[in-house]
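Tutorial, part two.
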Amino acid sequence: MVFGTHHVKLIETAKGKDFITRLSKEQALQLLEEEHKRGHVHTAYFKDIMEGFFALCNCCRCCCGGLEQMLLCGSPNVAPSGFVARLAAADRCVGCGACMRACPFGALEIRDKMASVRADACMGCGVCL
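Running the prediction step on this input gives:
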């Protein structure tokens, strides 16, 4: 998703092509929710030359070059959001590992049949929740 005044030029350039669509606020929020359910990480992009925040990508760990570079090479492509996941209470966690498999950053582990978050690795994407 592209935001700001520069998106107008993108839309004009892509007229007649089906790879770009103007969304209403409701459509954008619905798309973000659908991408979250797929386990994709909402990644914001900022550029000084484009007046700060300009795009929101929905990345998956299987085909996103930025996430792959970060996970395999340690390249700091993603900054933590500031949110640290708080998993299910002890009486609800069964240690199945579903949250651990969902985490694209490997920030979860099972200890004593309970999921726990490694705060140093958590990027705050919320995919595990």
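Residues 25-37 form the longest helix (13 residues). In part three we will examine how such features are distributed along the chain.
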